[in-house]
Amino acid sequence: ASIGYLRKFQLDKIKLDRSFVEMVDHDVDAAVVAQAVIALSKSFKLPITAEGVETEKQELMLTIAGCDRLQGWRFGYPTPALLLEHHHTHPTDDRLLPKTEEKRSAA
């Protein structure tokens, strides 16, 4: 009955919580739940985003399972909007963007 409410809410996307994503590569139950949520999103024709992807293995498993979008430290780190704007207008100038270790400590 609860799944029927998904139609009533008129959702435009689904996000797979980081708590499942961080365990998909080493916890069978988390992987099964992630696959079920991805399948559910497909049945409702909704795009799905996995949050908190940090490893290549997580990326591969979620991509194979059919996840539309992936986000997390595997792809980019939190960066202030002003720096992103500067980088967008000066794409070859990466002096102001944080280095890998700085990015993790800023998050």
Question: What can you tell me about this protein's structure?
Answer:
The chain is 47% helix and 9% strand. The longest helix is centred in the N-terminal third of the chain and has 16 residues.
Record keyword descriptors for this entry.
mainly alpha, disordered C terminus, 3-stranded parallel beta sheet, globular, 107 residues
Contiguous uncertain segments of 5+ residues: 102-107
- State the share of residues found in helices, binned by percent: 40-55%
In percent terms, what proportion of residues is strand?
A: 5-15%
- Overall geometry comes to globular
Give a quick precis of the structure.
With 107 residues, this protein is mostly helical.
